[in-house]
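For the sake of transparency, this paper describes our internal protein records without simplification. Because each token names a local backbone shape, the row as a whole describes the fold. One such record is reproduced below, unchanged from the form in which we store it:
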Amino acid sequence: MTDIEHRSLADTATRVREHIIRMSGNGGCFIGASLSCTDLIVYLYKHVLNISPDRVVDPDRDYFLLSKGHDVPALYGVFAELGYMDSARLSNHLHPQDVLYWHPNREVPGIEFHSGSLGHLLSVGIGVALDIRLRKGSNRVFVMLGDGELNEGSIWEAALVAGAQKLDNLIVVIDRNAFQANLRTEDLLPLEPLEDKFEAFGWSVRRIDGHCFSEMEEVFGTVPFEPGRPGVIIADTVRGKGLPSIEARADRWFVNFKPEEVDMLLDELHGIQRAELSSEALHVR
């Protein structure tokens, strides 16, 4: 990757984070997990996926399924930056006259499938991958899962099927930000060692820093990892990445910031000054 390409990725990710921050007011959004997966989604759409704004229904496109649907501000931010939607439309977030809300909606061009209730889109991805194989296609299916989502039994049922079907055109990306809602995953229901668990189910596993574009280049460039095995990339990330005032904070999972807090967080993103947040934190347990 050239320095220019790296800078372009970083600049795009910063602008996507700006969009996410702006969507964190006036009703709010799941900001922490949206910021943790931003770099991964930016890299996928700019350097991996065979898709473009004018090919969102092309049968030969690659598919991206956001199973952790509450992070859709990151995906919509990428859509706005890469020409899938007008960036001005993001101001309609949570407006009753639009369909931009807390989870993906297929009425938005580029969204492959609804999600929100966790644990479903890996099975959908398996169906798409099987269809591609039956059609003798060469396109691929990428499914992003949250680490807390791995507590859903349906994920492991699907993982068994993908391994048994030898779906090497299926790649799962796990946003491993170490939180499930308001708790750390390892305090609620320990997930590790994740590599061993997926390998036991017949998957080929890689693990990377989910904010390092160079590591993404190295691992995504070798997809499929092994013939006859689905692939999984465990991407270690930081919840709230880019905003030190909320990074790795359990109580800033879902937020509804005041307008002045949004302005302060935009300044914080650009290293001007740390935000002083006064809005109430959300606890669900």
Remarks:
- The first helix runs from residue 3 to 22.
- The chain has a mean pLDDT of 95.
- The chain has ten helices and seven strands.
- Residues 32 and 240 are 4 Å apart (CA to CA).
